[in-house]
Design a protein that fits this description.
Shape: globular
Number of helices: 52
Largest sheet: 9 strands, mixed
Strand order of the largest sheet: 8-16-9-15-14-10-13-11-12
Number of strands: 32
Distance between the termini: 110 Å
Helix content: 40-55%
């Protein structure tokens, strides 16, 4: 192609290319010219890249390696709202084990009021991020925690579902965290991989770029391996305290085990190990080099420091006492913007509590009654509203929940959740019973995610034997993001209880409280129409008590004189006087003992004038109330510990009227409005008519037998101040916040369901605390009634100024708890047991036991070196222990029996126990006990070989004998030539008949016939066995005139009586000789003799080192036992309720609620849904289809046995069908009781059935479900109306549980039947809305 001129010397070439004839333009080089300027082309192509500068290079490196960039493929806008016309899911290939990133980056939201405020340098708040392991998120998601968990159905948002997993409890050690960490991180393989040239994995998940370190091995470096330099390490720790972290130490733990080198003293500072021979020089060390340069010693010291810090953290108390004066004085500076302002000045403990709540800490407030604990709960509600979270207020009694709902409604967005009521569950502030919160935790309700605070009111209720376990369960199961507020009356161990909560939840608990009541109390005795002051606040005043006692003494002495004066009047008057004295004495004893019926009107003996006693009782109450009225001490609460006692006391005040016309009008209007919601027949119920007449006169009564609406009317009118006198049981002090001017105790004894007992100081303080209205009264008055006698001073002082009851654990295992925890693999029942308050002290001491175990394991024990070859000391020691056990069993029955005593005569061969070790020796009885000498004298063979040491001992004993023997008593001096010959040349001038005198010093030791022997004193218990042979002995030459020849002959006879192959002769026959008749004793005796023969042929028997080796073996065994004991105490087997847990597991397996692998079956899931009744009986009732042949009315009637609680009631009259259903249910309960008894649980079948099935209201509920009016069903039973209503209300909850169980089973017929039954009982006065909820 020819050249073409395009411009000034800018040439190109055009040609054809390919078969299609496309033109191709190719530029040609410019033509060189002589003039340099003209040689430049007209068009200069710019360079491909801009010129490189320092800034451009730096920017390029940052953009390429240091700046994270979102993946354009993953985050492209084209992927938004993309749709396909065919189904991708049919073609998608999903891997079975999809991989996931190891960590993600999540923003950290810091609440505005918790950000640090520097008023000098205001800076914009910056968002912070944190890197979270995906394994942790996945694990929390599985446990329904606060992150990344798919929410359940909207209908289960509040109550949860049986199919949800429980929340992961806060403070519970994560058993999965160890497995979630990859193996490469645990054993150091990742670090070695980087050292060997691997690529460091440092790209942030979901990003394509990150810090690319490249091949680390390619860079030259030097690592200094030396001992720790003090200055360098100190500076490093001060500048970067977080650099030496636990995670880093754990990561490099295995690496150090492989790469550790010993450093010599000569090169301890500047020795360098060159790991790479590159020419690059480096003077700076990375953070990794700085840590590695510290050497193994520093690593170990760092680890030890971390361990010490961990130990310190384990031993420190989690409960921090409050009482900080600086917080109270600088409160408004510390909390400038309060979430809720109060119209009064806060107390010190309230300011401290609010300050700690603002800091997000948990608090435990233990204050006196009426001190203002509710302020703390209100502020927690305010914080939840401010933070857009939720707060939960739990109460032990439904009445408290209803009352708090009314009190809080005017300030907050409040909801109410009880067994039968669910109002505004979406509210930010929820009030519920503790059982509801427990159910929500077990069922994994999604609403738990939003909860920031849980307020436990009346925490001292944890001492309740029946329901106290609920508080412990809830505290243990609360997730870690929830803070706790505990409100309680004053208890002596608040710090201990708070320490348990803090250690369980791994949170600091601030303990706050009051030292004295805001309104002081004075305590008085009311006796014979007068008040005697016996206490001032917490101080007992003995002078007032003595004055009352003196009046009592004078009154009784006057009665005695009157009775003596009537002696001359005739025998009839005398008998009447004696009878009266006995009656008074009997009353006094009953009043100081159990609260007998003779103290109450209408319950005296046959000879007592009932009308006179009623008149006396009435006059006593009238005089007391008039005295209180004159002293301006009304209103008054009179506590009676019986429903009948309350009603009868009120009936004694028929002539008293304490209200004026305006108060009567207000009471009438209020009652008309309150009872207008009832239908006509219910308004005319006898109880309602009677209570209204009492209320108009300013008198009220309050106990569990009243209808719920009647109790609420009484409570509200008392709070308004129109009720002047209120007779109540102790539930009023627990369930209603209604203080009075005065509190009166009818008695100081109560029936607790099992027996009559004295009031506890805590119960007295709780009820007496209702006296004194803060802001209205300067002092509160507490009066104790004394009728015929004065209380003992010790009892009175104990109740008034004694210490309140300590908070004690009532934790017990239930089948529902076990099944709920078995549903989740990560939660174990053992963990629940460990964290109970009952195990608090044992678990708190575990770190100390762990350290003690480490020390024990480091201790070394000496080994036993046998001189006879292979040691057999263990076998010998075991046999000796068995012999000792059998010997203790047969000692009393054999050795001290009359038959055995006949054989214990001189010459009888016996086996005795060695004094120094566990050996058994052969001997012969030389002398039996007598009137002057009370012990046996026995010659025993001590060893089977002669010893030089014992020979010297023999010489010493001979010298002792010669010193003790009197030469004038028959010894003569031998000729000088015959001295040193055998003692057989000595001759005795005494006769052969012994005198019974012992002329040797016991114990007497010697050697004869190659055997060592000893003559010693023994008692019956020292004999191990009696042999069936005797030998001839010379008692005179053995004891009175000792001769070696006699000892030698005796020893030889003993050796001749041993059979071949055995050490001891045969023992007496237990049946023929010793006349033993008990089979167990005979078996033990024979086993004892058999083991003795085995010990005799053991090579350790008679060994001179037996004692030494036994001591060593005892030390080894003691050390082993101590180690095993520590291991046992640290294991789950040491838990107090572990045997009960094993038994309950066996029961659940037996009834097929779980399988052999502890997997919960469908039957177990149904049992989890049963909360109102005994779960096993309810579940068996369902699976045995006991309700299928019953009508809805009959089914709900028989189900009332699950929830009715009163023991003694009249027997109901049941139709044949209901009677059969009752028998079936009773037989099921008996069978379940027998199964539990079979597996060693403390359950008696009959008691188990009586405790959990009470059929007293079956007929009542049956008639109610059929539509019978409430007034008519009350005539069918002697149960109070209030208990009838309570049972039917709880029965509705039971129907709901059975309905849910039917849906689990897929039983649609039972589902509809339970729905029909529930609708049949939900009507009229039984389900009348609470006045606290709807208002009046």
């Amino acid at each position: 192609m020819d050249r073409s001129l395009a411009s000034n010397d800018l040439t190109c070439r055009i040609g054809f290319s390919g078969h299609s004839g496309h033109l191709r333009l190719e530029p040609l080089p410019a033509v060189e010219r002589s003039h340099p300027l003209r040689s430049l082309p007209d068009l200069i192509i710019p360079p491909a890249f801009p010129p490189e500068t320092l800034e451009s290079v730096k920017k390029h490196v940052e953009d390429t390696y240091l700046s994270p960039v979102l993946d354009c493929h993953e985050f492209s806008s084209g992927k938004n709202e993309r749709m396909w016309e065919f189904n991708w899911f049919d073609r998608a290939k999903i891997p079975l084990e999809p991989s996931a990133a190891r960590s993600v980056v999540a923003p950290v939201w810091e609440l505005p009021f918790r950000r640090s405020k520097n008023w000098d340098h205001l800076e914009p708040w910056g968002l912070k991020s944190v890197q979270i392991d995906v394994a942790e998120i996945i694990e929390e998601a599985q446990d329904s925690s606060t992150l990344s968990c798919m929410s359940g159905a909207a209908t289960d948002f509040v109550r949860g579902s049986i199919y949800n997993r429980p929340f992961h409890p806060g403070g519970l050690d994560n058993s999965q965290s160890e497995r979630a960490l990859p193996d490469g991180a645990r054993n150091g393989e990742w670090i070695h991989e980087i050292f060997d040239g691997g690529i460091a994995q440092c790209v942030t998940p979901s990003f394509r770029k990150g810090v690319d370190l490249g091949n680390l091995k390619g860079f030259p470096c030097q690592w200094k391996l030396a001992k720790r330099q003090a200055s360098l390490s100190d500076n490093l720790i001060e500048e970067n305290p977080g650099k030496l972290s636990v995670q880093f130490d754990e990561l490099f733990k295995k690496v150090w085990e492989k790469d550790v080198y010993e450093i010599t003293e000569a090169a301890e500072v500047d020795e360098e190990v060159v790991l790479s021979t590159s020419s690059r020089e480096s003077t700076e060390y990375s953070a990794l080099d700085e840590i590695l340069s510290s050497g193994p010693e520093q690593g170990s010291s760092t680890s030890s420091g971390i361990v010490d810090e961990k130990r310190k953290k384990e031993t420190e108390s989690w409960a921090t006492p409050g009482s900080n004066d600086e917080i109270a004085s600088n409160f408004h500076e510390l909390v400038p913007e309060m979430a809720l302002c109060f119209p009064f000045e806060l107390d010190k403990f309230q300011k401290e509590a609010i300050y700690y709540l603002e800091k997000g800490e948990s608090v435990f407030v233990a204050a006196h009654t009426s001190a203002g604990k509710t302020v703390v709960a209100e502020y927690a509600f305010a914080l939840a509203s401010k933070h857009c979270t939720r707060a939960v207020y739990t109460a032990p009694i439904k009445t408290i929940s209803n009352q708090k709902y009314r009190d809080f409604c005017s300030k907050f967005d409040v909801g109410l959740l009880t067994g039968d009521v669910s109002l505004k569950p979406e509210a930010s502030c929820l009030i519920m019973t503790t059982e509801i919160l427990r159910s929500m935790l077990y069922r994994g309700a999604d609403i738990i995610r939003d909860i920031e605070w849980v307020i436990f009111d009346e925490v001292h209720y944890v001492n309740d034997a029946e329901r106290g376990v609920v508080w412990e369960e809830v505290i243990i199961m609360l997730p870690r993001h929830i803070n706790i507020v505990l409100l309680s009356a004053t208890v002596p161990n608040t710090t201990e209880f708070a320490d348990w909560i803090g250690r369980t939840k791994k949170k600091k608990i601030r303990v706050l409280g009051t030292s004295k009541r805001p309104v002081p109390l004075e305590h008085c005795l009311y006796y014979s129409g007068e008040l005697y002051k016996v206490g001032d606040n917490d101080t007992f005043l003995p002078q007032g008590f003595r004055a009352a006692k003196e009046v009592h003494r004078k009154k009784n002495s006057g009665m005695s004189l009157a009775s003596c004066g009537t002696h001359l009047g005739g025998a009839h008057v005398l008998n009447q006087s004696r009878h009266h004295e006995n009656l008074v004495r009997g009353k006094a004893q009953m009043h100081s003992g159990s609260q007998s019926a003779s103290n109450f009107p209408g319950t005296g003996g046959a000879s007592q004038n009932i009308r006179g006693q009623r008149k006396s009782e009435s006059s006593m109450w009238l005089s007391l109330i008039r005295k209180l009225l004159n002293k301006s001490l009304l209103p008054v609460i009179i506590f009676c510990f019986s429903k009948n006692r309350c009603d009868k006391s009120v009936d004694n005040l028929t002539s008293m009227d304490l209200t004026n016309s305006s108060e009567k009008s207000a009471i009438r209007i209020f009652c008309d409005k309150a009872f207008s919601r009832l239908k006509g027949s219910d308004r005319n119920l006898p109880q309602i008519v009677r209570v209204q007449s009492l209320l108009r006169r300013g008198i009220g009564v309050h106990h569990a037998g009243l209808l719920p609406i009647v109790k609420e009317v009484v409570e509200m009118l008392f709070c308004r101040g129109v009720i002047k006198v209120l007779f109540s049981t102790e539930t009023f002090a627990m369930g209603v916040n209604a203080p009075a001017r005065t509190v009166v105790f009818d008695a100081l004894r109560k029936f607790d369901g099992k027996d009559f007992r004295q009031l506890l100081p805590g119960e007295y303080i709780q009820m007496a605390g209702r006296a004194g209205r803060r802001g209205l009264d300067d002092i509160g008055t507490v009066i104790l009634m004394c009728r015929d006698d004065i209380l003992e001073e010790s009892d009175l002082k104990h109740v008034m100024v004694g210490k309140p009851t300590r908070l004690e654990s009532q934790f017990r295992l239930t089948y529902t708890m076990i099944l709920h925890l078995l549903r989740v693999e990560e939660l174990k029942v053992e963990d629940m047991l460990k964290r109970s308050f009952a195990e608090f002290h044992a678990q708190k001491n575990l770190p100390e036991k762990e350290r003690l175990l480490v020390l024990k394991l480091k201790q070394t024990t000496k080994t036993i070196e046998c001189i006879k070859g292979e040691p057999a000391i263990e076998e010998y020691f075991e046999m000796a222990e068995q012999v000792e056990a059998h010997r203790d069993h047969i000692s009393q029955a054999v050795m001290q029996s009359h038959s055995a005593q006949q054989f214990l005569s001189p010459g009888r061969v016996v086996i005795v126990k060695s004094l120094s070790d566990d050996d058994h020796l052969l001997g012969v009885i030389v002398k039996t006990p007598s009137t002057t000498y009370k012990k046996y004298v026995v010659l025993v063979l001590t060893t089977d070989m002669a010893s030089s040491l014992q020979s010297s001992a023999t010489a010493l004993t001979k010298l002792q004998v010669k010193e003790t023997c009197d030469p004038l008593q028959g010894y003569f001096i031998e000729p000088k030539g015959k001295r040193g010959m055998d003692d057989e040349y000595f001759t005795s001038v005494t006769s052969r008949k012994g005198s019974g005198i012992i002329n040797i010093k016991l114990p007497f030791r010697g050697n004869a016939a190659g055997m060592n022997y000893e003559v010693r004193e023994l008692v019956n218990n020292d004999f191990v066995g009696i042999c069936n042979c005797k030998i001839k002995i010379d008692q005179v030459r053995l004891l009175e005139d000792p001769k070696d020849a006699a000892y030698s002959k005796t020893v030889q006879q003993l050796l001749e009586n041993k059979p071949d192959g055995t050490k001891y002769p045969l023992l007496l026959d237990p049946v023929k000789d010793l006349k033993i008749k008990e089979v167990t004793v005979v078996e033990s005796y024979l086993m004892h003799n058999q083991i003795l023969q085995k010990m005799a042929v053991n090579k350790c028997h008679g060994c001179i080192k037996l004692k030494e080796h036994l001591l060593l073996l005892r030390d080894q065994n003691r050390h082993r036992d101590e180690v095993n004991s520590l291991k046992f105490q640290m294991s789950d087997e040491a838990l107090q309720q572990m045997p009960d847990f094993q038994g309950r597991i066996d029961v659940l397996k037996e009834i097929m609620c779980i399988d052999s692998e502890l997997v919960v079956q469908i039957k177990g899931r149904v049992a989890c849904a049963m909360n109102s009744g005994e779960e096993l009986i309810c579940t068996e009732c369902l699976f045995e289809n006991q309700l299928d042949d019953l009508e809805p009315e009959e089914a709900v009637a028989i189900m009332s046995a699950f929830v009715f609680q009163q023991q003694n009631t009249s027997e109901p009259s049941l139709p044949f069908k209901l009677a059969q259903a009752k028998k079936r249910l009773w037989d099921t309960a008996i069978r379940l009781g027998e199964i539990q008894s079979k597996f060693k649980l403390a359950v008696h079948p009959e008691e188990y059935a009586k405790e959990n099935l009470k059929f007293g209201l079956v007929e009542v509920v049956y008639e109610w479900a059929k539509g019978t009016p409430f007034a008519d069903i009350c005539k069918l039973t002697d149960v109070p109306e209030g208990l009838v209503v309570r049972t039917i209300v709880r029965l509705d909850e039971t129907c709901r549980e059975f309905r849910n169980a039917a849906s689990i089973l897929g039983n649609s017929a039972l589902y509809k039947k339970m729905e029909t039954a529930s609708n049949a009982i939900k009507r009229d006065i039984v389900f009348a809305a609470s006045l606290y909820i709807t208002g009046v």
